[in-house]
Amino acid sequence: MRRSFIQASIVAVTTATTMASGRAGAQTELRFARGTSSAMLAGSIVRGERAAYSLGARAGQRMSLRITSDEDNAVFQLYAPGARLTPEGVSGTALPGAGEGEDARRWEGTLPKDGSYLIVVGATRGNASYRLEVSIS
After folding, report:
1. CATH number of the CATH domain containing 109
2. Assuming Cys at both sites, which of 40, 92, 130, 132 could form a disulfide with 79, CB separation 3.0 to 4.6 Å?
3. Is the pLDDT of residue 9 over 60?
4. pTM score, whole prediction
5. 57: domain range?
């Protein structure tokens, strides 16, 4: 499996897509490079903010997410199609094992339906620089 490394452009975009209380709705659409089925994203977030990504997929596909950070303080949530960002957080259904408060660092599973999945990255404490690997098969 070939990986697409999206570095400088995603780092710049991540800053623009972090959401504070007044920035609901900001997210980055992920697209894999032609011929690949995964991507590695690098970004950073300030305490209390989140970065949001959307990724289109089909029911029955397998998705794998893994996040790492130097201080082991970056986590994510994964939401089913139909989820949306609101000023209060996220409105929608989280996938089992990757919901709010579960502090997911790894997730793998079969996707339940077609649509755009929402990945929300946050920090458990302080600021966080992170690397998020996303793959679909």
Report:
1. 2.60.120.380
2. 92
3. no
4. 0.81
5. 4-136
